[in-house]
Amino acid sequence: MKLHKESTGTILVASIVFALVALVSVYYLHMWSLLIIVPILLIYGLVFWFFRVPNRDIQDHKENVIAPVDGKVVMIKEVDETEFMKEKAIQISIFMSPLNVHICRYPVSGKVIYKKYHPGKYLVAWHEKSSTENERTTIAVESLTHHKVVFRQIAGYVARRIVFYCKEGDDAKAGHEFGFIKFGSRMDIFLPLDTEIICKIGDRTQGGIDVIAKMKE
After folding, report:
1. Among the options 93, 131, 143, 185, which is catalytic?
2. In what order do the strands lie in the sheet with 211-214?
3. What confidence tens digit (pLDDT) does each residue in 13-51 have?
């Protein structure tokens, strides 16, 4: 199983903690140490599972809006996007549990025209206000269909580190990685009002694969 590059520090710390707990348990508890070691070993395994990098066949897209993350669609509504678009837009929000792959991917192909990091709170990621009050990053892409698409990585109650590698002027390719969020979090996508929405609330998405909307040329 291939692991994401963001896993290095976390796995090192987890390995040290697991080794110390196992040694202390064996020394003091002897045969009863398995009561401690087995649950800790399961948690240790989940850390590796969280940082997995699945093999996915990423296609080229022009009009399609691709799911940027693995997770569950928890919101589809018309909102005022006040940071960059400064107009009404359709917001699609996808919640990621700690068991989901947390690689963040471009939802559309085009050119990165804006990015900004915002420090903030750590409300639970499914809370509606997390989009404007939590720690987050905002990225905008001028799509191949000449639309402005905004998407936002949002830290949750557990997730305390957002990573994004893109910069203004970069080429964006739908389905390809631009960042990562550690543990539980959410992704919001803001689309023009005339976008055809294909997904629905409750859908489970596969990042880089599933088409969630289609833009007009």
Report:
1. 185
2. 64-66, 211-214, 196-197
3. 999 999 999 999 988 888 888 889 999 999 999 889 989
